[in-house]
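Complex record, two chains
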Amino acid sequence: MLKQLEGSHAVAEAIALCRPEVICVYPISPQTHIVEHCGELVRKGEMGNCEYMNVESEFAALSACIGSSACGARTYTATASQGLLYMAEAVYNASGLGLPIVMTVANRAIGAPINIWNDHTDSMSMRDAGWIQLFAETNQEALDLHIQAFKIAERLSQPVMVCMDGFILTHAYERVDMPTQEQVDQFLPPFQAQQVLDPVNPYSIGAMVGPEAFTEVRYLAHEKQLQALDVIPEIASEFKEIFGRDSGGLIREYETEGADTIIVTLGSVAGTVKDTVDEMRAAGKKIGVVTVGSFRPFPSAQLREAVKNAKQVVVLEKSFALGFGGVVANNIMMSLQGTGIHVHTVVAGLGGRPITMPSLHKLFEKALADELEDMQFLDLQWDIVNAELARQRAQINSGPVAESILKNIQVDTAYGGAASHAAT
Amino acid sequence: MFQVRLHGRGGQGVVTAAEMLSIAGFNEGKHAQAFPSFGSERTGAPVVSFCRLDDREIRRREPILEPDCLIVQDPTLFHALDVFQGLKPGGYLLINSTKSWEELGIVDKVSHLPEGHVVGINASALAKQHVGRPVPNAALLGGFAAITGEIHLESVEKAISTKFGGKIAAGNIAAARAAHAAAFGEELEDA
């Protein structure tokens, strides 16, 4: 059924259709509307006997999820940003124990400086934690991925993180096709746990493992990720059979046929990139897009295949490893080693800076003209950066950086606090 | 694609207005995308929200840089920031005020716009009268339907009923009808 909904509410309704048995949450922007709406649906009796636990922190939320999942209950939570960091220890435990929890991460920057807006730093900080990480491009895909996530998680007995751009998706109203309960029931069978804490048949979960077996246990967790490379597309095609649309999967290609330059990106910016690429294709430019749907496991072989005929790849990402470079780009470079395809890194959209079509046009034209640097920041204001560097060199006691920058920056409030000079 | 940028202040329902506009578009079978400017919401602070309407899927997610229509819920914003930024040459401006362009100090900014594209409505007063509170957002959507023809008043009314219930919905619908009439220079009989 078509509905015009806020992304957060669409996800909460999809969660309800998945018949979760336990939801343990702690609210944090921009995820709050999801868990609030889940709470409303539980209170209204629209989630059966689901237990809704409002706990005192993110660490408690995921710890409670670990307990409920270990007892065989289909379990859901959501978080973002500092909340994900605060639950970090439990994030590793959930995957190390092989518990099929589904968690939404409403992607948001990490402070300091404190920033509530969107980028992918939070999810990327947990990229090696053993969770499957899926990225949504639209709100339709966000809700579809949650339904798929329970099936993927339970088939592999591994937790799945569904990453959706905070505010850009969570707070956007757009059209979604909400499945029926019958469709979801047909797609997603009741949870059958690989392992259950049961007093009738007692065993322990979470043994201490020493050097004699730790590598083997970790390798088996890696093996689960490799299995996911098959399971994710399988489940996406099972999804398509019942729901009739393409959603999820490892990667998606757009206009890659005959493209010399391929933009690789992930998350909601893909739509803006595609619109830009359409305009450039209309002008005869050979440019295409690959969207990464699954970041963990990383679909190296599929990516290599998708870009094999391109001369260069431009990775557009909302994350950044300080002191090194792009996070996603690093993964792509490793996937493409030996192919001779040149990989450029573009860091964009940090802390909610809008990624605009005029900026993308300039960037892509530069790439097509073979003038793109290996590593660059989209719309970085060099004058501001250089002035601050000069100021720091001039005085030892130059004071806090963020405060100083804010004094020197002109914010153009015509399109919102975080948009600065992007269109000029 | 028709792009609308809404300017107002925290507490005036600027974000809700964009959401209702998207629901109104959806009610007519359009694709519609509404989103806020993602600021820290504080009462009285300038707030921006956006709505796109189109007959096909809307993929881009940049803020609206070149609006076809501006809805200004608080005319004091004309002095606080450049709300006109990017407004298309043939664009529309709907203002929550019946003051003249001279009084608002916007003559230079609007005199090039086509006739009938700059309309002032006292939406706060209509809301005060019909809803009991001077919240101009729903009323202005009635005005939007009138001046742009992008959506029908009935779709706005249905969108208001989706967002609100009971008396609040009824009051806002009455305000939207009155604003719709006011945009055509009419006054409703039993307003």
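Note: Chain B has seven helices and six strands.
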